Amino acid sequence: MNWVETPKIITETSNGYDRSEILDVMFQNREIECVGEITESSSNSLCRQLRYLEQQDDKKEITIFVNTPGGSVDDGLAVIDVINAIKCPIKTICIGKAYSMGALIFVSGTKGRRFMLPHSRIMVHDPLIMGGIGGSALAIKSRSDDMMRIREITAEILAKCTGISIDNIYKYTAKDSYFEASEAVSLGFADEIMTKF
Description:
By secondary structure, the protein is of the alpha/beta class. Helix content is about 45%, strand content about 25%. The model has no long low-confidence stretch (mean pLDDT about 90).
């Protein structure tokens, strides 16, 4: 079997055997994944799933499994906005890594419901400029001003969700800062280390 393929779940019914995708079964259990690079496509998928599950039951918890190197800031912020806009409590579980924008999505889970597996890690840093900057001096200044605005927005999200002072957030994000699960919990990036599902 190719390990990249998602195996099917086979169940016996009165009409014979039924094959279901694991992700479909997880979705029925209100479990969704934020895995791989955060892009416009993955962000739209996450936002749709969150909105749909809220429509089904706006009081029941939704679990997001996070294992991502990060990605697009704008698309990650869209996911965070939807997490904050829906009424459902959100449990986040870091499996592997929650880096960059993935860390912001992870910490945006409901306080007290943000879990890390023992060997998972979080990494925070300032937003990165992708590609070269060129053009007129005014164009470069405009781009720089926008990056500083995004830096403030992401730092405020981290400070609000973790209880860490904004000054300390800026110290952490000045470089790539990695936190093992136990350190992430002690600092406030996560609430608990999970050893059993």
